[in-house]
């Protein structure tokens, strides 16, 4: 077998977790020093070796391994720091999350629907098509209820499984439709064929 170069040996040692903390720290320091010097000389136009760091897969791999080794050696410290950081910024993160959810209501609803469907064992169809139905339900100015065929104002729209999940219905473009919250509640877990003419007349359902 070909003898490994010094750097390759170092990479191997890091991979096998044979380097001590001191060695990893030193290797990372030397690495960043070499990187900085190269960056400066590149910026000054006296060195064209930027590709050595930018596209050399071996160099990238070495940096990655050294970083991974450092992270492995400081696991507890990093975890404690993360916890502390999250605790300090809890309110900020919550506000940021809430703002994002508010601005992406359709996406959030689509994601929740797919997650629920998975939990209930429903077959999940094309995600983009499902997301589009939720986008229409949340944002489209004019949507008609698939049960009563009347227009549904924004905020009163439910995305319904035509064949309910509890009856084996898939979460897919073909089995999802938008309905009034009330129409959806009235239909419940019934199949369309199970809704009697009396119920249809009473609830104003317009099922062809
Ligand atoms: Zn309706």
Based on the model shown, name its key terms.
DNA Binding (I), subunit A, 208 residues, mainly alpha, 2 domains, 10 helices, two-stranded antiparallel ribbon, 5% strand
Give me the strand/helix succession.
HHHHHHHHEEHH
Bound molecules: zinc ion
What is the molecular shape? elongated
Secondary-structure-based class equals mainly alpha
Q: In angstroms, what separates the terminal alpha carbons?
A: 77 Å
Helix content: 55-70%
Strand order of the largest sheet: 1-2
Give the percentage of residues in beta strands: under 5%
CATH class category of the largest domain: Mainly Alpha
Mean pLDDT: 85
- What is the CATH fold-level name of the largest domain? DNA Binding (I), subunit A
Say how many strands there are: 2
How large is the radius of gyration?
Answer: 29 Å
Report the sheet with the most strands, covering strand number, pairing sense and barrel closure. 2 strands, antiparallel
Oligomeric status: single chain
How does CATH name the architecture of the largest domain? Orthogonal Bundle
């Amino acid at each position: 077998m070909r003898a490994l170069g010094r750097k390759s040996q170092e990479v191997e040692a890091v991979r096998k977790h044979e380097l001590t903390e001191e060695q990893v720290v030193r290797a990372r320091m030397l690495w960043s020093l070499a990187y900085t010097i190269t960056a400066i000389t590149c910026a000054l136009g006296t060195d064209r070796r930027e590709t050595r760091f930018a596209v050399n897969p071996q160099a990238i791999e070495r940096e990655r391994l050294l970083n991974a080794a450092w992270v492995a050696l400081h696991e507890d410290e990093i975890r404690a720091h993360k916890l502390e950081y999250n605790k300090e910024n809890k309110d900020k993160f919550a506000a940021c999350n809430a703002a994002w959810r508010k601005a992406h209501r359709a996406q959030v609803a689509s994601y929740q629907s797919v997650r629920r469907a998975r939990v209930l064992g429903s077959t999940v169809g094309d995600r983009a098509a499902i997301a589009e139905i939720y986008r229409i339900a949340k944002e489209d100015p004019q949507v008609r209820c698939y049960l009563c065929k009347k227009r549904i104002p924004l905020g009163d729209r439910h995305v319904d499984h035509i064949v309910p999940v509890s009856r084996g219905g898939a979460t897919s473009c073909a089995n999802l439709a938008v309905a009034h919250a009330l129409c959806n509640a009235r239909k419940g877990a019934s199949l369309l064929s199970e809704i009697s003419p009396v119920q249809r007349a009473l609830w104003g359902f317009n099922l062809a």
